[in-house]
Structures are given as structure tokens and as C-alpha cells.
Backbone:
């Protein structure tokens, strides 16, 4: 299996991500507005925030986050089981196999809009298509010692039930969904060199940020749009797009096997969770 070279990335990418991360209401042929873009950012957390976060700030306040919200029955598991991985770093240092890519293309309608002129798939940093496949590999590899609060399925199988696919195209912001229940991601977003890593401390982002965006947008397909202002959620209990994004990162930080993520990555996941929680008006 070929190895992929890593390279450093620029703090400036954080700014690019700030501009690009966004979401929108489901099932609309939207032309997202600038005001939505301005208010629906998912910003990487500042370093000072990361170090000040308590280890488990919310679970005691919301001991039973679910009674919830199994919106979509997941389809049966795919015939090709995910390959167990020791750590996400190890996995992301390798290229997706042809079998894995075939599995993802079977499970999801993955459409790379030819009008965008994306480069062909290549297992090298900043390749848009690679970023999608690596995100799906990671979602398939992520497993937890407790069920996710919004579904009894695995993260990957939940995603399969929630959406039919992923579109990479030219759009002001990423949103859910097109007429075929595919989340629509801003293609430019996926050329971030930091997506070669699960988390890149220099930029404050990484593939985990893309996974958070995918989960956020896919949740819109199940539960609808935001409920507080244009782009925030009213409560954590409603388990909206920000709520599941919060719990996703909390579960990454606290409910993954010890070898899967590094302590730094867990700290980053907690910071990402706090950022998502900040988008809930009455948590
Ligand atoms: Zn949203």
C-alpha cells in the first residue's frame, strides 16, 4: 500500500476554512446568501480555548441526550466490511484501496461536478476527491464505546441512511441538499492541504473538520433547518445539525478506543465540540 507524503500547511488555511465552512437548510434549491455565510461559520477554535476546556462539560448536564431522534432507518451494512485500523493517523498515511473506493461509490452517489474542472483522483495532498474518500474511510473506521446519541447505527451506516450522496461543485457555501438528497459541498473547500491529516495543529483544522461538516449537513436531511436565527439551533436536545456535530466531536474525544486518536486529537475534538455548542442558542 503506497505511503503518502506529508507536508506542512499554513495558518492562512484557517482563514480559508472560516470562509468556506457553512451550511444551509435542507431540500431547497438555495442560493445561499452572504448573510447566512457570515453567520453560519464553523470556526476552528483558538488555542486558548482548547486548553481551557474541561474534560466533560456537558454530559452530566444532559445525561440522556437521546430519547431521540432516530430519524432514518439505516440500510443494511455493506458487503465489504471496513478494514480495522490501529489509528486514524496510520490509516490516513495510506491511500484508499480500489475496493474501498468502489465501496464508497456503491454506498453513496458521489458526484464531482465536471463543470468545476477538478483534478482527477490522485492519492496526493490537496486532491479534492481524495479528501472525500479519506473522510469516508475515517467515518467507517470510527467506532465508539457508546452509541452515538442520535442514532443506534454506526457513524458510517447512519450517513448511508441519512443521505444518498455527496456533490462537489461550485457553490458559495456547502448545504443540504440537492433534489436527490445529496449534500452539496463547496469544491474549493476540499483542496485544503490540512485534510491530509486528521488534525493539523498549525492550521487548527484537519480531516476531522470535514467529517464534522459532512455530519452537520447530513443531519439537515433528517431534521430540517436551523431553529434559532438563520443558522443556529435553539436547543441541544432537539439534536439538530449543531447538536449532532457537538456530540460527534464529544464522542471522538471521549468514546473512541485509546489507540485510535492521539491526546492532541482528542483535545482538538473537544474544542470542535465546544465550537459547535456555541452555535446552540439555549444549550
Ligand atoms: Zn447547518
Residues:
Amino acid at each position: 500500500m503506497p505511503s503518502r507524503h506529508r507536508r506542512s500547511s499554513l495558518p492562512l488555511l484557517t482563514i480559508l476554512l472560516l470562509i468556506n465552512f457553512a451550511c444551509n437548510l435542507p431540500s431547497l434549491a438555495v442560493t445561499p446568501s452572504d448573510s447566512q455565510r457570515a453567520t453560519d461559520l464553523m470556526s476552528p477554535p483558538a488555542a486558548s480555548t482548547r486548553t481551557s476546556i474541561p474534560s466533560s462539560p456537558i454530559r452530566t448536564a444532559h445525561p440522556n441526550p437521546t430519547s431521540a431522534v432516530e430519524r432514518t432507518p439505516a440500510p443494511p451494512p455493506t458487503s465489504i466490511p471496513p478494514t480495522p485500523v490501529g489509528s486514524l493517523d496510520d490509516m490516513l498515511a495510506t491511500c484508499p484501496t480500489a475496493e474501498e473506493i468502489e465501496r464508497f461509490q456503491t454506498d453513496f452517489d458521489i458526484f464531482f461536478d465536471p463543470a468545476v474542472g477538478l483534478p482527477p483522483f490522485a492519492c496526493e495532498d490537496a486532491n479534492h476527491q481524495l479528501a472525500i474518500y479519506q473522510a469516508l474511510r475515517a467515518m467507517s473506521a470510527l467506532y465508539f464505546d457508546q452509541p452515538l446519541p442520535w442514532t443506534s447505527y454506526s457513524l458510517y451506516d447512519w450517513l448511508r441512511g441519512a443521505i444518498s450522496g455527496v456533490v462537489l461543485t461550485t457553490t458559495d457555501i456547502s448545504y443540504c441538499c440537492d433534489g436527490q438528497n445529496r449534500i452539496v459541498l463547496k469544491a474549493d473547500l476540499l483542496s485544503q492541504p490540512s485534510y491530509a491529516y486528521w488534525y493539523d495543529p498549525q492550521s487548527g483544522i484537519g480531516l476531522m473538520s470535514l467529517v464534522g461538516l459532512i455530519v452537520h449537513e447530513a443531519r439537515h436531511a433528517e431534521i430540517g433547518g436551523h431553529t434559532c436565527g438563520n443558522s443556529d439551533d435553539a436547543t441541544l436536545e432537539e439534536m439538530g445539525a449543531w447538536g449532532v456535530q457537538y456530540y460527534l466531536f464529544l464522542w471522538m474525544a471521549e468514546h473512541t478506543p485509546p489507540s485510535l486518536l492521539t491526546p492532541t486529537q482528542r483535545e482538538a475534538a473537544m474544542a470542535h465540540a465546544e465550537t459547535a455548542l456555541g452555535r446552540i442558542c439555549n444549550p
